[in-house]
Amino acid sequence: MHNTLIEHARCLYGDEYQPTPECSLEHREHYFVEELTFADAESILTMLRELCPNVCDGYLPVWIRNLAFRLVLLQRPDEPVLMRAAAESLYLHGPDWDDIAADLGRRADALDAAV
């Protein structure tokens, strides 16, 4: 078993910034998705920062990145900074998700205005 979500993602998808480590474990995407699904928000954010430090980089598939942001926002629904980061990623990989990204931006603005 991998010790961290980052290690699991790096073994499965590779890493643009570091070599993929030698690993004898079985790598099946559904095992990673299961681990991601039950990961805490900080572990997911750490993985995104490590493997995709910029919005337009990294080897994580777009659908994994979108799922990761969705899972973080479910755990931290009132954080405008996270909403904007998710929206930025959606805009980059859109246009299918532009409406959702715009809604996230509006929600983030509303939360900022309420403070």
What is the overall number of helices?
A: 6
Order of helices and strands: HHHHHH
Strand content of the residues, in percent? under 5%
Helix content: 55-70%
Structural class category: mainly alpha
**In terms of per-residue confidence, which ranges show pLDDT below 50 for 5 or more consecutive residues?**
none
Mean pLDDT: 92
Q: For the CA atoms, what is the radius of gyration?
A: 15 Å
Shape, per Cα inertia axes: elongated
Tell me the distance between the termini. Answer: 43 Å
Major β-sheet profile: none
Number of strands: 0
**What is the chains' assembly state?**
single chain
Note down, in words, how this protein is organized.
The protein is mainly α and 115 residues long. The longest helix is centred in the C-terminal third of the chain and has 17 residues, at 98-114. The protein has helices spanning 5-13, 29-37, 41-51, 62-75, 80-92, 98-114. It starts with a helix and ends with a helix.
